[in-house]
Here is the input.
Amino acid sequence: MKFDNIIIGGGLSGLTCGIKLAEQGRKCAIVSSGQSAIHFFSGSFDLLNWVSGQVVENPLEGMGSLPDTHPYKRVGLENVACLAEEALLLLDRAGLDFSGQANQNHFVLTPMGTMKPTWLTLGDFTCFSQKETFPWKQAVILNFTGFVDFHTLFIKDGLAKFDVNVQIKNIAMEVFEAIRRNPSEMRSTNIAKKFDKGTVIEEFAQKVNELGEGAEVVILPAVFGLFNKSVAAELKAKINKPVLLIPVIPPSVPGIRSQILLRQRFQELGGTYLLGDNVEEGTFENNRLLDIKTKNHGDIKLKAEQFILTSGSFYSKGIVAAPNKIYDPIFGLDIDGDTDRAQWFDEKIFNDQPYMYYGVKTDKHFRALMSGEPIGNLYVAGSVLGGANALKEGSGAGICLLSSLHVAAQILK
Amino acid sequence: MKKEKFEPFNISDNNFEQCVKCTLCTVYCPVLEVNPDYPGPKQAGPDGERMRLKNPGFYDESLKLCLNCKRCEVACPSGVKIGDIIQAANIKYSKKGPSLRDMILANTDLVGTLASTFAPVVNSVVTIKPVRRVLDSVLKIDHHRIFPKYSGERFETWFRKHAAAKQRDFNNHVSYFHGCYVNYNFPQLGKALIKIMNAAGYGVHLLEKEKCCGVALIANGLIKQATWQARSNVKAFKKSIVEKGMPVISTSSTCIFTIRDEYPHLLGVENKEIRDESELATRFLFRLIDSGKLKLIFKEDYKKRIAYHTACHMEKLGWSIYSTSLLQMIPGVKLVQLESLCCGIAGTYGFKKEKYNTSQGVGQPLFDQINNADVDFVATDCETCKWQIEMSTAKKVENPISILAEALDVEATMELWQE
Here is the structure.
């Protein structure tokens, strides 16, 4: 089976890369071993939130102080602003309505009731220009009776620091009672599926308006619009005051919707999305990857001119830690990381953990190294790249989007 | 360049330990949404397995609401065999044996033999309303369900009479696992396959002894019989593949999925020697074309708009690309790829009175998609999807092989390799 480009990994990086290449007329396939981490998406993409524990106001400026091994530095600071702009447009073409700027972080209200800096925020959620104040003094948090993935008390406690008077109330509706019969399944996506049908919105909005009387703002869990993308907007239009949606414990409804829209955009451009398949090995010749073998396709190998590895970090098994080694389970590529297990961890869990920086080693063109030699047509992008602690920096999505667009540009050159 | 790999030793066969509790499987479970009595793939699968290992009393009969669509496994980023865990639990722990109805529905071979013998009578009797009411109240087969028609002449009979002799004229040979549906209900599909394979230069042969793949037996708890049939089939496949060097192809995605994956995973029937060379006909053809060994020529005047529906087991196999690629080779075909969703029938599941509503509820989003699609008909590789879609939508359904056979220019295709 022959393609121009094959992308290994179907998450944010893989889809970004795939869409960009397919938009330029490349025949692409994405092989994904299962559904991706976009399903845990909070609603905002971070570019650079913190450097040395300090909030970054202007991520483009903040990148200057990053080490040279950081993916942003390797992409080139001169390219970053342009790629960031491109990412926003690419998301927009996929039907994802994000707002934000790379030279000015905004803030979002977290499920802990705190303000967090971020780069791009999905239209469902509310952006704040600064973190010291909250625009309203009377808020009501409404939850679904029996829904335990939305922690209202954390939000209330957090908002108390902004001198906000918060009331917490529950909404019960017959339509949700059926899901509650099975308490472990009273989850965000199952609630969202009821709203998707469109028949519940009216009654729900009415209840929100009744219970929200006296408050200036209504806070709701972000469980609206799974397969039907207009639910959140329809609901907001029916509620008589500002509505703040707050992310809940995964699965994330806006996240799954985002994944579906990106995947559909890729497919509409002619891309082939192979879900639930695993790349098992590759055939290499003269430092080039000729084809890959997958679990589902066996002896029918997948061939391409260029391959892009966007298989994620430890969580997605893009790299794997065994008792005494860290390795890439697909090709056995070189790993940028310590070989001595004792150096992997800092025993204080909240410290800057060394293992977070580990990833597949590449040359300056983002081509993977194998036994020290670059594989000429195997590129690496996203979290499987080493060199950053995405958690400490708040840079995970930014690295995925920007490195993927950068690699796609290298291939298109 | 030696690849390093570390395999933990404490992972069980159905690897429930590798579940990281991410809940993604529950998002894609088609049953959970329409029937809250089902605990969902995470609870029924890896979570429940922990409990059942401690105390089998934690097994719950509601696990039988699982359609075995395996969409949870396709979604799982950790590779946990969620569907297998659930089916294996039904096999291991269920105390409720199959009812008379379940035995009738599961024994497709026996029922097919009887029904096709009296096909004209059976076909008309099961359409009579009072008969369906009786089936509904006595056997608990839902009266809404439309039965597949039985064919008066079985495929095997037709093959021996009209096709067997000339199959020796070819240089290349394959065996055909036709399955119960082709044999008893729809011999046209088997004939279409022979037409294509012969045009491609392949002689088609029956297996020495073909038994029903047993998928319905597994689903209905008739495990002993399923295991016996599986062993018999593996033996027949071995004879063809290992002894005669003839790969086995099929036109049913579920039969082939069962033989490749459910035999070892659920029945413990080893199939390593035959697995790689047991496949769908569309995959076999695709490989030949992809490697430049075959070219199919299609009629210029075949013009159709077709929607492709990915059957659940095709989704799990990852093989729909073979069928859609072949269909797209027909110049006059405009293919619409439907969003991959379960049709809800799950073999015998949708026939059962207590599950009928769940079955139709699961299928509704797919039915809506199909009813809204501007196409001449639907293509799918699964026969029970065909029954379900034809019963529940206004569209007819064809197997890709039937479509290819109709569009194929046999003489032109044969000329290419005869030269």
About this structure: The mean pLDDT of chain A is 96. The CA atoms of residues 24 and 412 of chain A lie 8 Å apart. Chain A touches chain B through 50 residues (CB under 8 Å). The longest strand of chain A covers residues 302-309.
